[in-house]
Amino acid sequence: MLAFLSFSIFGNDLAEAQVDPLSNIVFLQTGQINTDENQFQISNDITVREFFGGKIIRISGQTIEGFPYITYSKVSEEKTDSRGIIFINDQFVNLSFQEKITDSKTITEKNDDLAILVQYTQRVYSEKYAKIDVKIFEKSQNKLNDFYQNYGYKQNTNISVSIINEDDQTAFSSNGITDKNGLYQTEFFIPENFKRQTLTVTIIAENNDSKSSRVLQIFSLGQQSDDGKSSTP
User: Fold this and answer.
1) What's the whole-model pTM score?
2) Residue 137: which CATH number?
3) What DSSP element (H or E) covers 67?
4) Under a CB-based contact definition with an 8 Å cutoff, are residues 70 and 58 in contact?
5) What is the domain count for the chain?
6) Any domain includes 226
7) Is residue 106 in a domain?
């Protein structure tokens, strides 16, 4: 028997029978999925399909950064086992659903507890600037991911911004620290006749105790013609 559902994950209109299987899938509760290197926020709209009476659940959607993903979860009374992939920078990357195990003999890893909130130019023509404004908060202090929240931000946090083109080459990089308001700003100039492509932006925030990262996309639209459209292939 095959069931098909499409809904907003943060809505409250689902029947009880629909909610129960999904409540065992951790990333639906946290709103986050992870690769070995990066963390992503999933968007509200997802598509769910149930197989074998709800024992296998397939979930697909996009992150708020625009990266499509798909997961399969095997649900049982003992545990829920999930697998999945996400499409980043023109390639599929495995998602990680395993909790990190630490013991007294291992070096303590930094906490992934920084919220990296970004306002940036998502689409840009040649001979224009793509602006990237990064603001760092403690996750526990900004659960709504509000860029303009006036408390809970982290000053003196190291920021690294790198932009990779479709040839897997570094097109731009920038480093600095956040100011007293937790803000770091940079911009990237798109040169003349820069080809149309998708640029991958990786932002890393790090201080003494914490290290977090976020991946975004910027769409280079090529040279702008007189009619306001792109004239670059």
Assistant:
1) 0.62
2) 2.60.40.2550
3) none
4) yes
5) 2
6) no
7) no
Residue 66, domain member (yes or no): yes
Q: Which range marks the domain in which residue 30 is found?
A: 3-94
Gap between the Cα atoms of 173 and 192, Å rounded? 19
Q: Please state whether beta strands 123-124 and 211-220 pair in parallel, antiparallel, or not at all (unpaired).
A: parallel
User: From CA 223, how far away is CA 92, in angstroms rounded?
Assistant: 30
Place of tokens 């986050």: 32
Contacts of 158 (CB under 8 A, 6+ apart): 175, 176, 177, 205, 206, 207
DSSP symbol at 101: P
Q: pLDDT (tens digit, 9 = 90+) per residue, 163-198?
A: 999 988 999 999 999 999 999 999 999 999 888 999
* pLDDT on residue 226: 60
| pLDDT class of 230 with cuts at 50, 70, 90 | low
Domain membership of residue 225 (yes or no) is no
* Contact in structure between 152 and 177 (CB atoms under 8 Å): no
21 and 87 both lie in a single domain: yes
Regarding beta strands 197-206 and 158-164, do their DSSP bridges make them parallel or antiparallel, or are they unpaired?
Answer: antiparallel
Q: Positive or negative CA dihedral for 95, 68, 38, 148? A: negative
Which amino acid is located at 24 in the chain? Answer: N
Is-contact 59 70, C-beta < 8 A? yes
